[in-house]
Amino acid sequence: MESCPVCGASHSCTTHASYERNLIDFIQGRPVYHTIKVIRVICSCGHTHAILPDLIIPYNTYGVFFILRVIAEYLLHQHSIEYLCVRFSITHSMLYRWYGLFLEHKSL
Questions:
Q1: Is the domain of 101 the same as that of 81?
Q2: Which position among 60, 90, 99, 103 has the lowest Cβ density within 10 Å, counted as fewest Cβ atoms?
Q3: In whole numbers, what is the pLDDT of the chain averaged over residues?
Q4: How many structural domains is the chain composed of?
Q5: H or E stretch including 36?
């Protein structure tokens, strides 16, 4: 982290703690559950921040590549919605929510 998102101070963060986080990925045709370690830093202003790898979406257990895989298969129209939900162990509402977010943010 180059600067604190709260106070804006540059290079003022030091390692503070860590925690484990669950991450669901899709490997060799099935969902796979991982536990990863997330590093927390503390700024000289007292605020703490988690340093998340790029493949993690904040507040989401599913990794970005898992979600993109679901959306890609949905867009290919090769399988029914029911099949995709069973294959990826997700609900219909989750698939539609991810697709809606994809449409909303695809220009980024």
A1: yes
A2: 103
A3: 91
A4: 2
A5: strand 30-43
Per the structure, the complete domain to which residue 2 belongs is given by 1-53
CA pair distance 60, 78, nearest whole angstrom: 27
pTM beyond cutoff 0.85? no
Query: How do residues 73-92 score in pLDDT, each as one tens digit?
Result: 999 999 999 999 999 999 99
Question: 53, 76, 96 — which closes off a domain?
Answer: 53
Rounded to 5°, angle at Cα 106 from 100 and 108? 135
CB environment 61-96: b (16+ within 10 A), e (fewer): ebbeebbeebbebbeeeeeeeeebbeebebeeeebe
Q: Which of 20, 19, 1, 22 is nearest to 10 (CA)?
A: 1
Same domain, 49 and 68: no
pLDDT single digits (tens) 6-22: 998 888 889 989 999 99
- Over pLDDT 90: what percentage of the chain? 63
1 and 45 housed in the same domain:
yes
